[in-house]
Write a structure and sequence with these properties.
By secondary structure, the protein is an all-alpha fold. The protein folds into two domains: 33 residues, no CATH class; 68 residues, no CATH class. It contains two helices and no strands.
Length: 123
C-alpha cells in the first residue's frame, strides 16, 4: 500500500510569521485596552532554532485540496470531487493551506456554504 512520506520542517519564515502575529496582536490588545500579550523568549532568538517542545496541531488538512483546476486539486469550489457529479467532501481536507489556529470556524462556514449549495442543487 502506498504511504505518504512527510518531510515537515519549520523555517525562518515560520518563526518570523509567528513572532509578527503576536507582536501585532499585542499592539492591538494594548491599543484597545483589552489585555496584554507576553511573547515567549524563544521567538526572539535565532530564527533557525526551535524549542524541542513544539509539535504539530494534529489537524489533518489539505489531502483533498480545493482548486478550480483538477490537476491541482481534488474538489472544486463547491467541494465536489472533480469528474464526479454526486461526490462531495465536507471537511478540512479541502483546505488548500492551513494556519496555526484550529480550523473549526472555517469548517463550520464551509459546511454551511456546502449545505446551501446542495439545497439548490438537489431540489
Amino acid at each position: 500500500m502506498p504511504r505518504a512520506r512527510l518531510d515537515w520542517r519549520l523555517t525562518e519564515l515560520d518563526k518570523r510569521s509567528i513572532r509578527t502575529f503576536y507582536q501585532l496582536l499585542g499592539q492591538e490588545f494594548g491599543r484597545s485596552g483589552i489585555g496584554r500579550v507576553q511573547i515567549l523568549d524563544w521567538l526572539f532568538g535565532d530564527d533557525r532554532t526551535w524549542p524541542p517542545f513544539l509539535s504539530g496541531g494534529w489537524h489533518h488538512m489539505g489531502t483533498t485540496r480545493m482548486h478550480a483546476d483538477p490537476k491541482q486539486g481534488v474538489v472544486d469550489a463547491n467541494c465536489r470531487v472533480h469528474g464526479l457529479g454526486n461526490l462531495y467532501v465536507a471537511g478540512a481536507a479541502v483546505y488548500p493551506t492551513a494556519g496555526s489556529a484550529n480550523p473549526t470556524l472555517t469548517l463550520v462556514a464551509l459546511s454551511l456554504r456546502l449545505s446551501d449549495h446542495l439545497k439548490t442543487t438537489l431540489v
